[in-house]
Amino acid sequence: VYSLTQEWPLGGMRHQLSYTLPLEHHADFATTGLGDVLLNYRYQVVGTPESRLLAAPRLSAILPTGSARLGRGRGGLGFQANAPVTFLPTSWLATHWNAGFTVVPSAESPAGDRATAGAINLGGSAIWLARPRINLLVEAVWLWSEEVAGPGRRLGRSVTLVNPGVRWGVDLRGGLQIVTGIA
Known about the structure:
mainly beta; twelve-stranded antiparallel β-sheet
């Protein structure tokens, strides 16, 4: 899965709108294409860019733009909520924590069966601010998610991932910042 998220502040950093465009490859179907698009609203509850503690919950609408039949989408409208917290214990170390859930009331399987499907996510990361625009990081994520297993039936499974990575940013004129990374 490759994704692009574009954020826009609304009258300042406290309120932000964004969208997430995923490009997904599904090995079982040997296809690549658009997944489900997210429309996001984020509210900065605690902190400013200079703070050591920040919290910015996010609510998202999930649009069924991906193909459920090809394994690249959930096949129905859904919503997601996430509660991220950032804590900076030192000037060179940042930690991020996140907990959230997803619900798709009428998710679809590749076979066309429908059921309510959900997911729960927990994550944490530590980022070493090695240079002003280069960060080394390690992330850990636990995800429990349901797939439609038949009419009105769901199958749940969990996965745990630990990813080392690097990200780098480029500041452009006019305040645009582009951050890329790999993990």
